[in-house]
Amino acid sequence: MTDADNYNESKFMRKAKENPFVPVGMAGFFAIVGYRLYKMKSRGDTKMSVHLIHMRVMAQGFVVGAMTIGVIYSMYRDFVVKPREAQKALEPK
Predict the structure, then answer these.
(1) Cβ(34)–Cβ(57) under 8 Å?
(2) How far is the C-alpha of 93 from the C-alpha of 91, rounded, in Å?
(3) Which of 1, 29, 71, 92 could disulfide-link 5, Cβ–Cβ 3.0 to 4.6 Å?
(4) pLDDT tens over the chain, length 93 residues
């Protein structure tokens, strides 16, 4: 592996640790798209455009949900956990 490959891999891992719901959103997106592409064979009378629109809406909904949960988690971490830790650090022992 070159240094550029190592840098990109470590950058992805660092970003994944900072925002753990981004990889979850990406994985869910690809899982939904893959499943719906697999199910395309047995779509019956449904038009192709309707099938693709449903697939896109499901995938986008999953990603938006993961992003929302990630924002709520980071707000909890920044506004509840960190102030509590700071307050404990200021208390005399």
Answers:
(1) no
(2) 6
(3) 1
(4) 567 667 767 877 887 787 788 888 889 999 999 999 898 888 888 899 998 999 999 999 999 999 899 889 889 989 998 888 888 888 776
Q: What angle do CA 80, 84, 90 make, to 5 degrees?
A: 150
Residue 15: what residue type?
Answer: K
Phi, psi values for residue 32, rounded to 5°? -65, -45
Interior/surface letters 47-85, b for 16+ CB within 10 angstroms, e for the rest: eeeebeeebeebbeebbeebeeebeeeeeeeeeeeeeee
**20 contacts 76 by C-beta, under 8 angstroms:** no
